[in-house]
């Protein structure tokens, strides 16, 4: 019986011990999200990541920024790994940016999922309320952040795709139980 009295605490300690460290990520896996700021995340893409075939395929617009093709591919890869269909995210990003920069209120509303989270923890319940409060939601700071953001440098984590320093977030929503169809929309503007 005494032996049991000694074994029980030892077994309990063994059961509560730290798990083995996770395996090292594959060389081609995206870096883990560590809570880095968007600027740090964007800075982590180095020019060394640009491969020769991508540099050869660069357009004249990319000549000023040789890392642009690699950065866009990196953003797409992160989205594919964490969220799914990168093409759908890029399509919504481009449409939203074009609408915001152009001041096209109707087109902006088309890219938003309601209820929309806005600053102050409030929610906008529908398109009419959004239109009535457009200037309060799409502020000059939001316009500036959206117009300055390039798709290749978006911050991506499990919560979605971030524009600027968190002014806008996009994410997908499953349209069926198996989640074979999704719809990407803007979910937060602050």
Could you explain how this protein is built, in words?
The chain has 190 residues and is of the alpha+beta class. It has a domain of 113 residues: Roll (Nuclear Transport Factor 2, Chain: A). The chain has a 6-stranded mixed β-sheet. Strand 4 and strand 5 form a beta hairpin. The termini are far apart. About 23% of the residues have low confidence.
N to C succession of SSEs:
HHHHHHEEHHHEEEE
Strand content: 15-25%
Classify the helix fraction into a percent range: 40-55%
Low-confidence stretches: 25-68
Give the averaged pLDDT, no decimals: 77
**Terminal residue distance:** 65 Å
- What is the overall silhouette? globular
What top-tier CATH class of one domain fits best? Alpha Beta
The assigned structural class equals: alpha+beta
Spatial order of the strands forming the largest sheet? 2-1-6-5-4-3
Please give the count of helices: 9
Q: Report the CATH architecture of one domain.
A: Roll
The overall strand count is 6
* Largest beta-sheet characterization: 6 strands, mixed
CATH topology of one domain: Nuclear Transport Factor 2, Chain: A
Alpha carbon gyration radius: 22 Å
């Amino acid at each position: 019986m005494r032996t049991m009295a000694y074994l029980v605490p030892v077994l309990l300690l063994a059961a509560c011990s730290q798990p083995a460290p996770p395996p090292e990520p594959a060389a081609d896996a995206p870096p883990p999200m560590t809570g880095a700021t968007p600027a740090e995340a964007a800075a982590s893409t180095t020019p060394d990541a640009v491969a020769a075939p991508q540099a050869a395929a660069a357009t004249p617009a990319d000549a000023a920024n040789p890392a642009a093709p690699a950065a866009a591919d990196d953003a797409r890869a992160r989205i594919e790994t964490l969220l799914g269909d990168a093409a759908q995210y890029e399509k919504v990003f481009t449409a939203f940016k074009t609408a915001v920069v152009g001041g096209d209120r109707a087109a902006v509303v088309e890219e938003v999922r309601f209820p929309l989270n806005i600053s102050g923890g409030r929610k906008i319940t529908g398109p009419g309320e959004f239109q009535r409060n457009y200037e309060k939601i799409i502020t000059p700071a939001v316009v500036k952040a959206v117009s300055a953001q390039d798709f290749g440098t978006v911050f991506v984590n499990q919560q979605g795709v971030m524009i600027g320093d968190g002014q806008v977030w996009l994410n997908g929503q499953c349209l069926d139980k198996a989640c074979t169809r999704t719809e990407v929309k803007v979910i937060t503007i602050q």
